[in-house]
TrEMBL record:
Annotated InterPro entries: HicB-like (IPR031807), TA_system_antitoxin (IPR051404), TTHA1013/TTHA0281-like (IPR035069)
SUPFAM superfamilies: TTHA1013/TTHA0281-like
Matches recorded under Pfam families: HicB_lk_antitox
Organism domain of life: Archaea
Gene3D superfamilies: 3.30.160.250
All residue ranges annotated as the HicB-like antitoxin of toxin-antitoxin system domain in the record: 10-56
Name recorded for this polypeptide: Uncharacterized protein family UPF0150
PANTHER family: ANTITOXIN HICB (PTHR34504), UPF0150 PROTEIN SSL0259 (PTHR34504:SF2)
């Protein structure tokens, strides 16, 4: 069997408790968390393998080209 090499973007956010949440937008439902960024990255690799092993078809994974991240701050009425 031939190995496939995937280059996936991982988004990392920090929740209100200080926990790092890692997500792979190209694989629906593929996310995990960790106490450190390094731990979250280690765990996201495991999560990616788990998602693929659970039946995610490699042909359906179409990684998008990462361009950058932006944040926007807007006023909303309460």
């Amino acid at each position: 069997m031939k190995d496939n090499l995937l280059n996936l973007t991982v988004l990392i956010e920090q929740d209100e408790d200080g926990i790092y949440v890692a997500k792979v937008p190209d694989i629906p439902g593929c996310y995990t968390q960790g106490n450190t960024i390094a731990q979250a990255m280690e765990r996201i690799e495991e999560a990616i393998h788990a998602c693929i092993d659970a039946g995610e078809d490699l042909a359906d994974i179409m990684p998008m080209k990462f361009i950058g991240l932006q944040q926007v701050e807007i006023k909303v009425k309460a």
